[in-house]
Design goal:
alpha+beta, Uridine Diphospho-n-acetylenolpyruvylglucosamine Reductase, domain 2, 3 domains, three-stranded antiparallel sheet, 12 strands, disordered N terminus
Length: 575
């Protein structure tokens, strides 16, 4: 070994030690600035409670217990001395969501993903000879210097992200209005009747029904529906056609989290650079994003040609991307560039604002699966829902009728979304110092009673959505029970104070509230309407069948003992 190499290794270790020391000092300084709160003690000096949280089959129960023990705002120790502030207080949540764009940004591990996207966009422009001169992009930093087009500059400066997102959201609003969803409802019916034709064929050979793995079919109908309604592309997934997109989604739903993925997740909040480790989760996301990028560009080019020639304008305008294309071609402040339109189609890592695929596919497929599980577990509720749907025995309800004339369907849908939010938690990082007001005062470790919490810049702030949606302190003693009737009763006083759609955090709230919630609700209601009106769903081994969480890249429910995310149900025609 050469002397230079010998000197280099110790030098690297010294630099690494200095860097780690700096991180620990910064963490300690942040701890001093943030008011000390009570919370559960760490079980590991190195990992805090991170390992316990990751291994828990249902961590929402622990968060609820901690809130009862330490108050509605408390701290949880993370790896290497970091801590996160957990909010379950309604007043604190209102402040958090209203400040999400200006104060609470995505954590550094999320910004690394954004930086990677920026670098890839820059490469695309350079290959297309659009950039006059090459810029400099450093992912993982708060500011990425780019000499390229404005749309690249728009996403590279952290303080501009909110402004650009606001402009893009304004352009997206017409695509998710009541009028737009009213037109798209027919697409959802077309998809579910296609599924019905396949199921009827399966049931023809059996007089006592058939065992159907419903989770797979809910994935298929959700992806086909969002493909057609979202950007006029039929994945033909219901017909069994495979593509890189369907393969990637299947893998994300079935691939278990490896030890490496768990370790990367544990360390990422303290050391964001570990997200460069090519875990199976990251590889799947990149594969999916590449596939969506190709589809999005091809669709955009085809529809632009059709738009310019006046062909198929009616079809184009009915899809979400068709309305985005209008914005892309419009000469206004809301004009979206080609890159911005494409970005709404492909996957943004861990982004709650990806309104097409993550809202249209993930939210609906998981929610539909949980709906069939709950209705199979509660046959009396399934029968009651079927009676509510019988008033439309001869035709399918319009979107307006789905909203206003089927109250028990509406209650069932919202009860599923309350108990089983597809996104169970979110974490943000304070972009600058903040003071969060509390509705219920908490007691600090020193015994002081406080009515607000000082948050230092860089502190992770965590919202346990599943915990809040199911909290007995907020929703009453039957909070964990599947009870659609609760939506006909007065919501408990505490739950009334919660922000969000129908006092649920399932679709988030504030300036980053999910734009696609009407899209998801329309698809959810239309599909469930047709399925429950035509079929009876039962567990082969009875309603006490145990359901567990399949911990994969995308967590999904499954019947205990099944290999992978599978929910086999006995399906019979309604007599």
């Amino acid at each position: 070994m050469s002397s230079s190499a010998y000197i280099g290794i110790p030098g690297f270790l010294v630099l690494l030690g200095l860097w780690l020391s700096t991180k620990l000092v910064l963490n300690a300084w942040r701890e001093l600035k943030t008011i000390q709160l009570r919370g559960p003690p760490p079980t590991s000096r190195i990992l805090g409670l991170s390992g316990d949280i990751l291994q828990s089959p249902d961590i929402s129960l622990a968060y609820e217990d901690w809130a009862a023990q330490y108050g509605p705002v408390f701290e949880v120790p993370l790896a290497f001395g970091r801590k996160k502030i957990v909010l379950t207080d309604p007043k604190a949540l209102i402040h958090f969501y209203n400040s999400e764009r200006s104060v609470y940004t995505k954590a550094k591990n999320d910004r690394i993903f954004i930086g990677r996207i920026v670098n890839s966009l820059r490469s695309l422009y350079e290959r297309a000879n659009v950039l006059a001169s090459s810029g400099v992009a450093f992912y993982g930093r708060k500011e990425i210097r780019t000499n390229g087009p404005p749309q690249l500059q728009c996403v590279t400066n952290s303080w501009l992200i909110g402004i650009c997102s606001s402009r893009q959201r304004k352009a997206l609003i017409p695509a998710f209005s009541n009028a737009a969803i009213r037109r798209l409802t027919a697409v959802f019916y077309d998809s579910v009747y296609k599924l019905k034709s396949f199921w009827d064929t399966i049931l023809e050979s059996s007089s006592d029904g058939a065992i159907i793995e419903v989770e797979e079919w809910m994935n298929r109908i959700a992806l086909d529906s969002v493909g057609i309604a979202g950007f006029s592309h039929d994945f033909r997934y219901l017909e069994g056609q495979q593509s890189p997109v369907t393969t990637a989604f299947e893998a994300m739903g079935n691939t278990k989290m490896s030890l490496l993925t768990r370790l990367v997740f544990l360390l990422s909040f303290t050391f964001p650079f570990v997200l460069s480790v090519p875990t199976e989760r990251i590889r799947l996301f990149w594969e999916l994003r590449r596939s969506l990028n190709v589809i999005a560009r091809r669709l955009l080019a085809n529809m632009r040609r059709e738009k310019e020639s006046g062909v198929a304008e009616e079809l184009t305008d009915k899809s979400v991307i068709g309305l985005l294309l209008k914005a892309e071609l419009a000469d206004s402040e809301l004009r979206l560039t080609q890159e911005e339109v494409v970005a709404q189609v492909r996957l943004h890592f861990r982004s709650v604002e990806n309104v097409l695929l993550l809202a249209g596919y993930e939210t609906t497929s998981i929610a539909l699966t949980w709906a069939l599980i709950e209705l199979a577990k509660h046959p009396e509720i399934q029968d009651k829902l079927r009676r509510d749907l019988a008033r439309f025995s001869g035709n399918d309800p319009t979107w307006d009728q789905l909203v206003s004339e089927l109250p028990y369907l509406d209650a069932t849908v919202h009860e599923v979304l309350r108990l089983h939010p597809p996104v169970s938690e979110i974490i943000r990082e304070a972009g600058h110092d903040d003071v969060i007001p509390l509705g219920t005062p908490v007691v600090t470790p020193s015994g002081e009673t406080i009515s607000s919490v000082i948050i230092a810049k860089g502190t992770p702030v965590f919202v346990p959505i599943r915990t809040i949606n199911r909290s007995e302190a907020l929703w009453g003693p039957e909070a964990k029970k599947f009870k659609p009737e609760r939506w006909f009763e007065d919501v408990s006083f505490s739950a009334k104070e919660l922000p969000g759609h129908r006092h649920l955090l399932t679709f988030h709230d504030g300036p980053r509230t999910c734009l696609g919630k009407l899209f998801a609700l329309a698809e959810f209601k239309a599909v469930l309407f047709v399925l429950i009106r035509n079929y009876v769903f039962e567990f082969p081994n009875g309603p006490e069948t145990k359901i567990v969480n399949h911990v994969a890249v995308i967590p999904r429910p499954k019947v205990a003992g099944q290999n992978g995310a599978k929910v086999p149900l006995r399906v019979r025609r309604v007599e």
